[in-house]
Amino acid sequence: MEGAVAYESDLNLKATELRLGLPGSNESEKQTLLSVKSNKRASPEMAEECRSKSNSSISDAGNDGREAAPAAKAQVVGWPPIRSYRKNSFQTRKKDEETTGIYVKVSMDGAPYLRKIDIKVYKGYPELLKALEEMFKFTIGKYSEREGYNGSEYEPTYEDKDGDWMLVGDVPWDMFMSSCKRMRIMKGSEARGLGCTV
Amino acid sequence: MNYFPEEVLEPVFDFLSSNRDRNAVSLVCKSWFRVDRWSRQRVFIGNCYAVRPERLIARFPRVRALILKGKPHFADFNLVPHDWGGFFYPWIEAMAKSYSGLEELRLKRMVVSDESLELLSRSFPNFKSLVLVSCEGFSTDGLAAIAANCRLLRELDLQENEVEDHRGQWLSCFPDSCTSLISLNFACLKGEVNLVALERLVARCPNLRSLRLNRTVPLDMLQKILLRAPQLEDLGTGSYVKDPNSEPYIKLVNTVLNCKSVRSLSGFLEVSPHCLPAIYPMCLNLTSLNLSYASGIRDTDLIKLIHHCWKLQRLWILDFIGDEGLEVVASTCKELQELRVFPSDLYGVGNAAVTEEGLVAISKGCLKLHSLLYFCQQMTNAALITVAKNCPNFTLFRLCILDPTRADHLTLQPLDEGFGAIVQSCKGLRRLSLSGLLTDQVFHYIGMYAEQLEMLSIAFAGEGDKGMLYVLNGCKNLRKLEIRDCPFGDAALLMDVGKYETMRSLWMSACEVTLGGCKVLAKKMPMLNVEIINEKDQMEENLDDSLKVEKMYLYRTLDGPRRDAPDFVWNL
Lengths: 198, 572
Known about the structure:
Chain A is α+β, with helices and mostly antiparallel strands. Chain A has a domain at about 100-190: Roll (Ubiquitin-like (UB roll)).
């Protein structure tokens, strides 16, 4: 990709380039560029987390090294030129995004009343399914892309933004979180039908 | 010279709304000067240290509306130390004694204390409008005083201020007799407000046209407010979070259908994307949309929203709209005049959210575009040249590449040609911000072509003094020049010292300018204040003149060095 070529030439221009960060911070800049290439699919939240964790030290966020700290760039005072009010409100909002829950109704076939859960609390499908199992006292089968949930007469489903009933687990977790309106744990033959649809 | 009695001249001068015109007529003769002087109601002071308040009052004794700006623009980006100045109190103290008829005040980047707000609230019986932009130094106590004492208040507009929130009852301080509010914006406040008082206030102000809530106002309250004020034209939502199956949300959907006048929408600091469909009916008539704080609206939700907004003239968004999203904007928003794309990822790592492709798409689709602020990861000369060709009407062009010295990512050349094309094509360009890898050549182009340029912001650019000289020599209408981290030195600074008297101000930080050079300038130009900001502890008198100056801010003034400068500011 042309990005890599730009990166190499950037090295040549370093001699005439005005210094941006601390001396010796070249290395992290390289890492930063690299992480840009490989991190394209990282969710913004991950990048933000990385930023808030590694404020002024040149270190990775302790994750899988993909998120090399952007510290070198972060140290240029007043760059990018954004009003401090706006910058500060990002920090606050990050905290808020962490605290506002996404509550969805969960119905279970045969149960007398519905429950409500905050799906934001869970980090992924396994956690969510386990919580549902505990809440409604049942077991969910094993998920596979081809066959849905095998090994139990229950299938977790959800209604998405378009009003369609979907099998839980097909789409990435983030997408599920943002599109799930409500959930229904289907039982028996109806559930089977869903699992067999290609 | 015809001699009209002054009573005849005054209503004639009333028709002159532009202060430039009024300045011109006041030079014609003593009589005209007098008439203008006594009838001038609106004054704009772009630098609060250019004149002392007493001089303003002496010159224009009957001012009703004042606009004051304090700190230099780069203070927005933490380049100016906290206590540098820009204090409002001396102004209000002087005006309280002399301007009984003051009605409107608009302050930007000033330090406003609660004390000054209290004095303001008690001193002007006709006071109607207070607009504070990017100010600091006050708390909700000061707002309480305004609410309580300004009987005829029509407008209280707080934009992006740092306000100390005492979580008091400032909103409840509006008396029951206050029914005159037209505009209320408290979006920047962090604390809770009394929701009952808010609803009652909205209910008793039938002329309320603009209301911007803060993040603590929940969606239920939004629905109640819209029910009371279906006439609203400008709405800023508070917390827009709810279960879309809940009753408050369903009520909101119906209430919105009745709000047919909303033309401007903002807020969404907290948002449940599922709840956005409620506002789709509003989108059809929107001319202004600010989603630049709505980090919760992304991807398909954002695109769907934009699809409804085909009358949009102003759009502020975050860069995760992406290039594809900008293409949607380009094909949907044919009336777009102003676009601002802010970075969501402040340190330039991770998602390459928008690139030159998004900008080119916009330029192809939005032919009425004249104002741009664009934060992006990368740019090319070819893209800028295309944009310049498609949109020759730019008056404001601010491009910020997150890596400030990044070259054209395809050719690896500096971006001189791209920006050169912009200044050459956009003959009405008044404000320009540069970024990316740039040599002196770009300044050559700017000096040659940017005839209408009034404000120029430069960072990490140029090769030597020539660059700055091109600009100073070429841009005849230049008023504000701000430079950081460029290799411009004394030779450039001192070449044409008279130029600075034609400008409002010059800022230079982390450049090659020395203490000696600044001293020479200060000596030659007594009508300028040359301020050196030196935050390190080097307060000795006999500092070496060859010392490079950290930050220099110079501005023309009628009243000499200011008396409120803190220790770290030296006026030469």
